[in-house]
Predict the 3D structure of the following.
Amino acid sequence: MEFQDVVRRRHMVRNFDARRLPRDVVDRIVANGLRAPSAGFTQGWAFLVLEGAEETARFWSATFASAEARAAFRRQGLFSAPLLIVTLSHKDAYLDRYAEPDKGWTDRDESHWTVPYWDVDAGFAALLMVLTAVDAGLGALFFAVAEHDRFRDAFGVPDAYKPVGAVAIGYPLPDEPSRSLQRGWKPSDAVVHRGRW
């Protein structure tokens, strides 16, 4: 697929067929996430890849406060996604990397960072995985991970890693569009400022 087609076709999918994805497709999605840019080539991310109903069910059990909350969730088709990839950031990796001689800081002081690039870079990786899924003819959704402590406990994730978000991936089924889309795209002149504000 041409890149512009991937960008145009990308939308958030919330209803999936439960069919497992081919191994080579999953591997390509993850490999492309690893190609994301990162400040200082730190690569301070980690991905928790959950495939199939058993692994994804553990995720949903950990991230919903109760079975009742899950049953009341409006988008039940999301629970059928056969692949979930949780993108995690590792702040300490960046603080350590930028205290190295080639970066010029002599300490790990977080105040050097005007933006938390550990989270930004994890977001870049997630976006590359979403775009790779679309390129493979699949649907994808990036969403927040709730219940961080329960999630960490369920999967043995160290405290130093923060879940920035998860990507649900699978074969898309007909989906009710998000009500937010009624807002429409902002006109480019409202957000693009050339030369000055």
The first strand starts at residue 16 and ends at 17. The chain has one domain: 3-175.
